[in-house]
Design brief:
single chain; mainly alpha; two-stranded antiparallel sheet; rod-shaped; 6 helices; 2 strands
Amino acid sequence: MLRRLIMIALLVVVAGFATSFLMRQDGVTVMEWLGYRIEVRTSLLAVAGLVLIIAVVMLDRLIGFLAGLPIRLSRGLKQRRHDAGHQALALGLVAASVGDRREAGRQEKKARRLIGDGMLTSLLTAQVATLDGKTDVASKYFTELAESLDTAYFGQAGLMR
């Protein structure tokens, strides 16, 4: 905060010196355009050119910001959906581990809706089916897990239970 304040103060001082320097300069720029004769102090013309350059840069940044806004918004929505899905998955696994079938089932549906199929959602579905006493559904998901090299052990352990 203090560094930003110092930078602003420095910028104001530099702008003041530049203005003072330009105001002390003599000179007139004469332009003839479309039958008109325009006489402008050279320092005023230099400042106008600088202001025009700054305005074009700011307009370019604004257009770039507005053009990238839909992408940033969709990325943010996707991230929030992903986070909510993993939160539901974690809550569902915790609920299943303590035997709360109703909460585990609710969180399993929410996780499946938000993040789709995957290893952990299959595990949660198998756990919910086990709590419900639906061994055929549970064995289907545990078999899926047993077929993957990464989760073969856990799938087999689930099938044995």
